[in-house]
Amino acid sequence: TILSDQISAGEVVERPASVVKELVENSIDANSTKIDIVVAESGLKSVEVVDNGSGIASNQVELAFRRFATSKISDKRDLFRVRSLGFRGEALPSIASVSDVDMKTSDGKKQGAEIQIHGGKVVKMEPSQARRGTSVLVSDLFFNTPNRLKYLKAPATELSKISDIVNRLALSHPEIAFSLTHNGRELLRTSGRNNMQQVIAGIYGNRNMKQMIAIKGENPDFKISGYISLPELTRASRKYTSVIVNERFIRDFGLDHAIIDGYGSKLMVGRYPIVVVSITMDPSLVDVNVHPSKEEIRISKKKELSTFISQTIYETLSKQNL
Ligand code: ADP
Ligand code: MG
Fold first, then answer.
1. Residue of the CA atom closest to atom 20 of ligand 1
2. Any idea which ligand is nearest the CA of 32?
3. Which of 36, 146, 182, 293 lies 20 to 30 A from 261 at CA?
4. Do residues 105 and 124 lie in contact, with contact meaning Cβ atoms separated by under 8 Å?
5. Can you say whether the dihedral through the CA atoms of 139, 141, 144, 150 is positive or negative?
6. How does residue 69 score in pLDDT terms, banded at 50, 70 and 90?
7. Contact 275/241 with Cβ under 8 angstroms?
């Protein structure tokens, strides 16, 4: 029902940045190689995500907006080996229940479809474009849930949250060409040439990127790669610390700490390095079904992973000082 969708929207869609995150994750799951994000008025007016992914067959379009309808998991056991970013089937119905949604999609084989949904009700469904891919335009977010609107922060803050999410998604997927445009101004563009350094340069600037050093480490359980800044080049915010597990960016206090531990006593109190740490591990050791926003995950060998991250960073920095 629309009401239960609105309730679950409270968990999935907190703010414009969550809409961006869910839509872009869907585009990534659809194997897109190009994803363009266009935002107006910090997402308070509209958020549009255009991809060149697999699209949705027109007879499946309405289903995609039904709660718990996911095409990504068919078996309960799949939950223990989730590879896709989405799997709960809640995002689209949640978003559509509290906004105006206009989706155009095509699988490139048959005639595409356009669907418009207003506050959870389908108001239009008709044949559309043939180009393979999907575009989703979300406007008037929270128009029917004024309490939610009240909890939003100043537009500049909402925009910085959007930017932060897109940055992390781009860092998690250097093989995808991303662009983020706000009120006609381009904030980020990545090439999609699978070059992590280029993505870092696009986000943190060329100068910072040139002062970062590559880290690499591998043991039977984990593979670590990424870039870290020298202890001198630090920021007063945790925002510049990105941890990616199996191409999914996560927020984990323990792993952030493992990174900082790797610096030993070299970091000043309250200063944080600019870091991107990307970890590859057996997906069965990772439980992503912890929280609807999927940023928290449970890792089976977390202590071992923490130690390995610290060690890898420590060794990298020691070599630098030779
Ligand atoms: P989930 O991602 O958890 O499966 P969503 O509500 O986010 O649930 O999306 C529902 C379904 O709609 C997805 O399982 C997928 O089949 C389809 N879908 C959504 N967005 C896209 C897209 N950009 N490209 C292709 N399919 C999509
Ligand atoms: Mg999804």
1. 26
2. 1
3. 293
4. no
5. negative
6. low
7. yes
pLDDT tier for residue 73 given thresholds of 50, 70 and 90: low
**What average pLDDT is seen over the chain?**
90
Name the DSSP letter for residue 290: T
Of 13, 29, 294, the residue with max ligand 1 atoms within 8 A of its CB, to mutate for a pocket test, comes to: 29
ipTM exceeds 0.85, yes or no: yes
Q: d(Cα 293, Cα 153) in Å, to the nearest integer?
A: 19
Q: What value, to the nearest 5°, has the Cα angle with vertex 140 and ends 134 and 144?
A: 120
What's the CATH code, domain 2-189? 3.30.565.10
How do residues 133-168 score in pLDDT, each as one tens digit? 999 999 999 999 999 999 999 999 999 999 999 999
- Token pair 């309250």 is found at 270
- State how far the Cα of 278 lies from the Cα of 244, in Å rounded to an integer: 5
What's the predicted TM-score (pTM) here?
Answer: 0.92
Contact by Cβ (8 Å): 155, 44: yes
Whether the per-residue pLDDT at 247 is higher than 60: the answer is: yes
Domain boundaries, the chain: 2-189, 206-320
What CATH class has 206-320? alpha beta
- Three-state SS letters, 191-226: CCCCCHHHHHHHHHCHHHHHCEEEEEEECCCEEEEE
Beta carbons within 10 angstroms of residue 206's beta carbon? 12
CA atoms within 13 A on the CB side of 132: 11
Is there a shared CATH topology between the 2-189 domain and the 206-320 domain?
no
- The residue-averaged pLDDT of 236-264 equals 91
Q: Ligand 1, from 8, 26, 97: best to mutate by most atoms within 8 Å of Cβ? A: 26
CA–CA separation, 295 and 275 (whole Å): 18
